[in-house]
From TrEMBL:
Belongs to the calycin superfamily. Lipocalin family. It comes from Pontibacter flavimaris. CDD domains: lipocalin_Blc-like (cd19438). It holds the Pfam family Lipocalin_2. This is Lipocalin/cytosolic fatty-acid binding domain-containing protein. GO terms for biological process: response to stress. It comes from the Bacteria.
Length: 185
């Protein structure tokens, strides 16, 4: 057997093994979403109460998102905002588009901030009055607890954290979001 062929076979075996191990360690039960989201009611401002750490949200304070239906239809306009470094830090904005996943009754969206990359935005729990939401991704690496107000009742927060844990999210890594720029008198 040629040396190059041996190297290719060895490299292939190592990559295959790594892929199998990666798949095994990320083997989760299917992630259940809410049955339906009324996009008209979901539109507006949502404050981030807690999140799993995300590289793009490092050092973010006073985080919120604004959602609006695109006038031409077909997708949701997304505008995320945070203050970098502290409540008085520089305002950082990011604009994206959320595309409802066919057959999900709007409970699953694919959100794109940088074409062609899209991420999962699945609504896992939603208050009947659309006052708070638990949003995550099926890989369990993204999770947000959102509220229409900058604060959330402690009992509701604890219930949402417990629900996220039951769904397989690493809630021990949750970060509470500093919303002091909205809550100071």
């Amino acid at each position: 057997m040629k040396k190059e062929t041996k190297l290719l076979l060895t490299a292939g075996a190592v990559l295959a093994g790594a892929a199998i191990l990666s798949t095994r360690s990320r083997n989760h039960a299917p992630l259940k979403t809410v049955p339906r989201v009324d996009l008209n009611r979901y539109m507006g401002r949502w404050y981030e109460i807690a999140r799993l750490p995300q590289r793009y949200e490092k050092a973010c304070h006073c985080v919120y998102a604004e959602y609006s239906l695109h006038p031409g239809g077909g997708y949701v306009e997304v505008q995320n905002a945070c203050r970098k470094g502290g409540p008085n830090g520089r305002l950082k904005m990011a604009e994206g588009k959320g595309f409802p996943v066919e057959g999900s009754n709007n409970s699953k969206l694919r959100v794109e901030f940088f074409w062609p990359f899209r991420g999962d935005y699945w609504v896992l729990e939603l208050d009947p009055d659309y006052a708070y939401a638990l949003v995550g991704a099926p890989d369990r690496e993204s999770l947000w607890i959102l509220s229409r107000t900058p604060t959330l009742d402690q009992d509701v927060l604890e219930r949402l954290v417990q629900l996220a844990e039951l769904k397989g999210f690493p809630v021990e890594h949750l970060l509470l979001t500093d919303q002091s720029c909205f809550t100071q008198g």
